[in-house]
Amino acid sequence: MNIWKISIQNIKSKPLYSLLSIFLLSLSIALLLGIQQLKISFKHQMENNLGDIDLVVGAKGSPLQLVLSSILHLDNPTGNIPYKEAKNLVKNPMIKRATPISYGDNYKGFRIIGSTPIFLDHYNAEIKKGDSIQKSMEVLLGYSVAEKLKLNIGDTFLSSHGLIDNEIDIHDKEFIVVGILKATQKVIDKLIITKLESIWDVHNHEAHDDHNSHEINHDDDDHDDDDNDDDRKITSLLITFRTPSALLTLPRKINENTNMQAALPKYELDKLYKFTGIGFKTISWIAYIILFISGITIFISLYRMIKERAFDLAILRTYGATNTQMIKMVTYEGLIIVCFAFIIGLLITKIGLYFIFSFAEIGNGSNILQTLPISEMIKIIRLVFLMIILSVSIAIYPILKMNISTILNNEN
User: Fold this and answer.
1) CA of 124: how far to CAs of 49, 50, 182, 260, in Å?
2) Cα 26 from Cα 351, distance rounded (Å)
3) Phi/psi of residue 239, each to 5°?
4) pTM score, two decimals?
5) CB burial string 220-231: b at 16+ within 10 A, e below
6) pLDDT digit string (tens) for 37-75?
7) For residue 138, what are the CA distances in angstroms to 130, 164, 177, 196?
8) Which of 344, 248, 386, 260 minimizes the C-alpha distance to 24?
9) H/E element holding 59?
10) Which residues contact 233 (CB under 8 A, 6 or more apart)?
């Protein structure tokens, strides 16, 4: 007796229940896998893009907005701060390094970031093709930008004012591509990098010589307070502490004694992760409820099969089939449903996340989704199999209590 074939025939004999069981189970598996993958990817992206940045200094406003706009580049800036004040701030001995960034323009929806060469160091970014920036209006393209826009070395373009692509407010100064960065799987892949002077020049500031561009590194002795800095503005400063004790005093000092705002990115992003965690948990609980419902559906399907085919099962017993073989038949049926559901669930997860990210244009070609760890996959597999074992264990009760003679006499 081929138990596998009998189990498959049983599934075919009740297609509606079988399809419903597979659909519900695959849906719950897809939700559980998808939400876990999103949680891991979201946390990884926040930590990965944070790098060695300990503090963000910018205009007064929402600290979370300041962090999102300056590090993850997901929000609008809180405003601008005077470049001269920023240069004075980084004279503090507790600051190891400070990277100024300035932005407010875009090209085809990709942000143009004005900064200094050390900006690339925060992301361990390296040039894949071309040269580094030498003068104003030269740009380095993030890997995803070059891939999406099909730009190459020597190409030129005009930027649009604001952070959203538009054809209304276009500047008349051309940027020229001098290099393309290697893929990092970080936010810099989606940025267009240039010098601070480029941002000032585009916005009709007086042209400045290259020697006025500083990397604002505390280790430099050159802190030129040139009068030309009075009207210059930047969006924010990305600061790395020299000592951990700076965390306790410097942010409060900046917030209380200056017109600028200091935000701790790790603290703000941790709050954001906890907030989004509520949504993740809600979807997870919905998945667990669907999993529970699918378990009930599978149990009903198996139980109905046993009750409706009681005569056929009794005949099999008279031909020598044992209780163990009968139980195997029911168990195999449950396993077949689980295997199909897992395959479909995995496909739904991969296809669903792909279309969600593509539709929302998240990543712009950069693979920000992290592979789900095997340990997390095993947890979900264990949970599903536990549910199936429980459903099968309850469903086989009629087989254990089967009275062959009574069933055969009643059928006759």
Assistant:
1) 10, 12, 10, 28
2) 13
3) -110, 140
4) 0.70
5) eeeeeeeeebee
6) 888 877 777 777 887 899 999 999 999 999 999 998 888
7) 12, 21, 6, 11
8) 344
9) strand 55-59
10) 80, 81, 82, 83, 102
Helix axes 374-395, 15-50, angle to 10 degrees: 160
Is the C-alpha dihedral spanning 166, 167, 172, 173 positive or negative? positive
Helix (H, G, I), strand (E, B) or coil at 81: strand
Cα separation, 114 vs 117, in Å, equals 10
Q: Which residues contact 177 (CB under 8 A, 6 or more apart)?
A: 130, 138, 139, 140, 141, 151, 152, 153, 154, 155, 156, 157
Tokens coding 121? 């160091």
The residue among 87, 57, 72 whose CA lies nearest residue 215 is 87
What digits encode the pLDDT tens for the residues 103-113?
888 998 899 99
**Helix%, strand%, coil% for the chain, nearest 5:** 55, 15, 25
* Pair of tokens at residue 274: 């906890």
Give per-residue pLDDT as tens, 233-258: 899 999 999 888 888 888 999 998 88
Helices and strands (DSSP H and E) totals, the chain: 13, 12
For 105-142, how does the pLDDT look when each residue is reduced to its tens digit (9 = 90+)? 899 889 999 999 889 988 888 999 999 999 999 999 99
Q: Are 124 and 130 in contact (CB under 8 A)?
A: no
